[in-house]
Specification:
Order of helices and strands: HHHEEHEHEHEEEHEEEEHEHEEH
Radius of gyration: 23 Å
Distance between the termini: 63 Å
Number of strands: 14
Mean pLDDT: 87
Length: 303
């Protein structure tokens, strides 16, 4: 057995969570995947995976081996990609993670367009609102919205958005429309727990940043779920402009406090520092930035 085949099978099992799904991903049978992993364990003289009838888990040796295995596969893929790059074609695999709502609205379609233009590139797009560890989990790129903690990752801005205060006409018919940001404390606020501080919102009032509380009984970790609750008249919410732009244009929602600006939220692409930037990653980043620029232009009162 080629040791690379064993390493590739091992990493695929970890990422897919089963031998069967790993086989589907690799285009081979689950029995062959199992054979490759067993042979790799024999070569290394350690057990890498705990196998039960219900679940798979990494052994301590497997956890240590996984990071090195990912680096080996990345190096092999880079060799292949460089060879194709010399021929003018992009090739190789990218693992990308993006927030659920943003991914469903934009990243999925843009990824499809990119792979159509570059048939030699394979992209594994994982939609999740949790902050993944790129190095430990083998991701090449993470798309994130908002202020990010300092880290060793390289950040590249690919767009901007703003969380707007919105409510439904039905809610506003039954409650006084807030005239100033501090009026929000007297309303039912639907909070998105993905926000940096779900219980507060920052507005520019008389040129100064003012943080106001957002009392409410419902907090949910999805911008689309928050949107649905607001559409049903349950309260006011701060929702990214790209999520509610159509609802505002078609009258299903109304924007509140438009004269009080909110901080712009950067949409950023994060990746690990590396001596050689894979051409497919550079091309994918350029594709996202160029495609998102016209889609995420949110007009501001002073523009």
């Amino acid at each position: 057995m080629d040791r690379i085949d064993g390493i590739r099978a091992f990493v695929a099992v970890v990422d897919a969570g089963s031998f069967t799904r790993a086989g589907e991903r690799l285009g081979i049978s689950n029995k062959l995947v199992s054979k490759y992993v067993a042979a790799l364990e024999g070569q290394q003289g350690v057990t890498l995976l705990n196998r039960t009838t219900r679940a798979l888990s990494l052994t301590p040796s497997g956890e240590r081996y996984l990071a090195a295995a990912r680096r080996v596969l990345a190096a092999v893929e880079e060799l292949d990609a460089q060879a194709h790059a010399e021929e003018g074609a992009l090739a190789g695999r990218l693992r990308v993670t993006a927030p659920v709502t943003f991914g469903e609205m934009f990243a999925t379609t843009l990824t499809r367009d990119f792979t159509r233009a570059h048939p030699g590139v394979e992209i594994d797009l994982n939609l999740s609102d949790r902050y993944v560890d790129l190095a430990a989990e083998g991701f090449d790129l993470a798309l994130r919205i908002g202020q990010l903690p300092d880290s060793s990752l390289i950040a590249r801005r690919i767009g901007q958005t703003e969380a707007w205060a919105v409510a439904s006409p039905a809610y506003l018919a039954a409650h006084p429309r807030p005239a100033r940001p501090e009026d929000l404390r007297d309303h039912a606020n639907i909070r998105d727990s993905n926000a940096q501080n779900p219980g507060r919102a920052v507005f520019l009032v008389d040129g100064k940043a003012v943080s106001v509380p957002l009392p409410g009984r419902i907090t949910v970790n999805s911008a689309q779920a928050v949107r649905h609750l607001v559409l049903e008249g349950e309260g006011i919410a701060m929702i990214p402009s790209f999520v509610v732009a159509r609802d505002l244009a078609e009258g299903r929602l109304e924007r509140l406090l438009p004269d009080f600006l909110r901080p712009q939220l950067d949409i950023q692409a994060l990746y690990l520092p590396q001596p050689f930037m894979p051409p497919r990653l550079t091309a994918y980043l350029d594709h996202l930035r160029m495609a998102l620029s016209p889609l995420l232009k949110a007009p501001r009162p002073d523009s």
